[in-house]
Amino acid sequence: MTKKRDIEIAAIKNAIIESSDGCFAVKYESDGSGYHYTVYSEKESTDLRKLKTVLESLNLSKRFIIILANSAFIEFKRVEKK
Predict the structure, then answer these.
(1) What secondary structure, in 3-state letters, does 17-57 show?
(2) What's the rounded Cα separation, in Å, for the pair 77 and 27?
(3) CA 66 – CA 55 distance, rounded (Å)
(4) Measured between alpha carbons, how far is 29 from 61 in angstroms, rounded to an integer?
(5) Which residues contact 78 (CB under 8 A, 6 or more apart)?
(6) CA 61 to CA 13: how far, in whole Å?
(7) List of residues 6+ apart from 82 with CB closer than 8 A
(8) Judging by beta carbons within 10 Å of its beta carbon (0-12, 13-18, 19+), is residue 11 exposed, middle or buried?
């Protein structure tokens, strides 16, 4: 990973910690439109409005996608390898 990406991922993790009491994962992923940060956070314990506001204020170099899911799915995504 690049230094800039490492810094941005750390900032995203801090934003999630401020907005959620549940488990989470942050991935740098690609789809047909290019690379983006994917934020997985627990549906029941995430203040989505606060998380979105904080992430937007970070002015990240890539777009972000927030996926709300249960803890089992997030744990799967955390350990998933490409």
Answers:
(1) HHHECCCEEEEEEEECCEEEEEEEEEHHHECHHHHHHHHHH
(2) 8
(3) 10
(4) 14
(5) 23, 25, 40
(6) 15
(7) none
(8) middle
Query: Which amino acid is it at 13?
Result: K
Whole-angstrom distance, CA of residue 25 vs CA of residue 66: 10
In degrees, rounded to 5, the angle at the alpha carbon of residue 80 between the alpha carbons of residues 6 and 5 is: 10
The chain-wide mean pLDDT, for the chain, equals: 93
> pLDDT band for position 1 (50/70/90)?
low
Domains, the chain: 3-79 (3.30.300)
Q: Tell me, rounded to whole angstroms, the distance of Cα 36 from its chain centroid.
A: 10
Closest CA to 51 of 81, 76, 73, 18: 18
| pLDDT at position 32 | 86
